[in-house]
Specification:
The structure is a single chain. By secondary structure, this protein is an alpha/beta fold. It has 10 helices and 12 strands. The strands form 3 sheets. The protein has a 5-stranded mixed β-sheet, sandwiched between helices. It has a 5-stranded mixed β-sheet with strand order 8-7-6-11-12, sandwiched between helices. The two termini are 15 Å apart.
């Protein structure tokens, strides 16, 4: 059995994984109505409160003795020098204590690596860790296209090859949602509203090479709201704008780097319109919804893969 911890700026999550099953429990952090996120101090506090209760639920789902072989935790947002957010300290502290008590190895990875491995696990393509592929990480804090290659030390090595130069895809979704009265985080509800719209939009994404710019989308959403456009139509415009930008990025990347497999990870990747449009066009792999949003499942997978490498 392998245990994973993840304490992002949105969700507290713990997971247990072996060759037969994946069990995970998570809790969204509480955000006040009208707000678009949390201060790090508040996120850290909520994680500290949430972890014991989630671990109790995980324990109840498992039959002791566990036979835990290793534990992993996301200790930073991304696998680059200087990447740091205080909220990850909650998970790192709990995972360190758990590993010390059980006398097992603690592995540390990034939140981003966890997202990618969760997507691969969910799509049934963990074999891709052995070859190069393109992964999109689309979330509230990150909109990046990554060239992913096998790595003996870190399982996978990621290099950003394209990104949003301003607003992230998840920020477009959440800011649009808050503006039209949804509770943060807004992805699932905005997805439903967009599906109710029959409006058609001819969107030309703002691109600079392989990179995109999404800041103009929020400005247009504000104007639509001021012009009393229907909220379902506004939701669809925001989603279509993100889809158009990611589509243009994917097309340019594959032309430059070759016809590599494409994997979509991160909360925005669960959007139904994005999955349909890009899945069909690029034969891409998507994480299922429970493995798209922030989770510890990919971190638990990391623990298993690292342990097996010795």
């Amino acid at each position: 059995m392998f245990i994973g911890f993840d304490t992002s700026n949105y969700t507290t999550s713990v997971a247990a994984f072996d060759s037969k099953r994946m069990i995970q429990h998570k809790k969204l952090l509480d955000v006040k109505a009208g707000e678009r996120g949390l201060r790090q101090s508040e996120a850290l506090f909520q994680h500290t409160v949430n972890i014991p209760a989630l671990f109790d639920r995980l324990k109840d789902d498992l039959n002791y003795p566990l036979g835990v072989k290793a534990i992993a935790v996301s200790s930073r947002p991304r696998s680059v020098e200087g990447s740091y957010m205080p909220c990850f300290l909650a998970g790192e502290s709990a995972a360190s204590a758990c590993a010390a008590l059980l006398g097992v190895t603690l592995y540390k990875t990034s939140h981003q690596t966890g997202h990618i491995l969760a997507a691969l696990y969910s799509a049934g393509r963990l074999d891709l860790v052995n070859e190069p592929f393109i992964s999109f990480h689309l979330s509230g804090g990150t909109t990046e296209a990554l060239l992913v290659k096998p790595d003996n030390n870190e399982i996978i090595k990621v290099t950003a090859v394209a990104q949003s130069l301003d607003l992230k895809a998840g920020q477009v979704v959440d800011r649009t949602g808050v503006l039209i009265g949804l509770k943060f985080p807004c992805g699932a509800e905005l997805d439903k509203m967009a599906a109710e719209s029959d409006a058609e939009f001819n969107i030309k994404p703002s691109m600079r090479g392989l990179d995109c710019s999404l800041s103009g989308v929020e400005n247009k959403v504000r104007k639509m709201l001021a012009d009393s456009l229907g909220k379902n139509d506004i939701a669809k415009f925001a989603v279509c704008s993100v889809c158009a930008a990611v589509d243009a990025m994917t097309d340019g990347i594959l032309k430059e780097y070759g016809n590599l497999p494409v994997v979509f990870a991160g909360g925005v990747s669960s959007n139904s319109m994005l999955r349909k449009k890009l899945g069909e066009r690029y034969n891409a792999y998507f994480a299922e919804r429970d493995f798209s949003c922030d989770n510890a499942a990919g971190v638990a997978v990391y623990a298993k893969l690292k342990f097996e490498k010795g």
